[in-house]
Design brief:
Helix content is about 0%, strand content about 40%. It is built from no helices and 4 strands. The protein has strands at about 10-15, 25-30, 40-50, 70-75. A 4-stranded antiparallel β-sheet has the order 1-4-3-2, with no helix packed on it. The two termini are about 25 Å apart.
Length: about 90
């Protein structure tokens, strides 16, 4: 069973900002396919460990060796977002 109405963003915070992310602060997410639209939420989980490699995107020139820290953000009123959409 899953709560399909709830939406959660998985964010990867680069090592220079990793110590500044905490549970409960407000966050904003955007989607390339919905220009100008912002999805507000709250940081729900911050993973304690750093990752060895960054998640890959389609961006040219992406540095693939930056370490990251994972955070999960619970969104408010984001029912229109399909599951597994890049945000």
């Amino acid at each position: 069973m899953a709560k399909l109405r709830a939406r959660r963003i998985r964010a990867f915070v680069e090592e220079l900002d990793a110590a500044r992310i905490h549970v409960r602060p407000k966050a904003v997410g955007t989607v390339d396919g919905l220009p100008g639209k912002e999805f507000r939420g709250t940081v729900a989980v911050v993973v304690l460990r750093m990752g060895k490699r960054s998640p890959h995107s389609d961006a040219p020139g992406e540095d693939r060796y930056v370490r990251f820290r994972e955070a999960l953000v619970d969104l408010e009123a984001a029912d229109e977002l399909p599951l597994n959409l890049r945000v």
